[in-house]
Design brief:
By secondary structure, the protein is mainly alpha-helical. Helix content is about 60%, strand content about 0%.
Length: about 170
């Protein structure tokens, strides 16, 4: 899923959480959760650096890095939660945002290393085929990617998540 879908998914998760835990019902929580929902994909820049260009390659998968390991984020959450009790909403934003990202990525072709470092097994409930890109130039690469991505089920889910997030944002529900 692309960044807008992850951000929308994180925002929706934050609104759901705030309905159950009223102290979370604050703008800072929604903003932070939305940011943290994209945070795990910042590791893509490590992949870009390895390749030397801002394109994707099948032999370098950013989901194999520890930055895409849910248990690591659970540990960071626990440490921050207990060290900074005045900022519990930040801890919850971190956990809810990052885990919404991992939940969404579980439905990707690649999946997620849910049990890393104890296991290197990828877990997924694949909705779409893996998208393979042959173009190596930046604009041609991402144009080919988008043409293929617009045809998969995940794109429709992403549009739905964005629409729901926008409704929640503008109706203040």
């Amino acid at each position: 899923m692309l960044p807008p879908g992850h951000i929308a998914g994180g925002f929706i998760a934050s609104k759901v959480a705030a309905n159950f835990v009223t102290p979370l019902d604050r703008p800072e929580f929604f903003i932070l959760t939305s940011f943290f929902s994209f945070f795990p994909d910042l590791d893509s820049f490590i992949s870009f650096a390895k390749i030397g260009k801002m394109i994707s390659r099948e032999d370098i998968d950013h989901r194999t890095y520890p930055t895409h390991a849910p248990l690591l984020y659970l540990l960071v959450f626990a440490i921050f939660y207990f060290l900074f009790p005045s900022y519990h909403y930040v801890s919850w934003a971190f956990l809810i945002g990052t885990w919404s990202h991992f939940l969404i990525d579980t439905f990707s072709a690649e999946g997620i290393l849910w049990l890393w470092p104890f296991s290197k097994k990828f877990y997924n409930k694949q909705m779409d085929p893996r998208i393979t890109i042959t173009e190596q130039g930046f604009f041609k690469h991402w144009t080919e990617f988008l043409k293929k991505y617009f045809k998969v089920f995940s794109f429709k889910v992403e549009i739905l998540l964005i629409a729901i997030a926008l409704v929640l944002l503008f109706t203040n529900s």
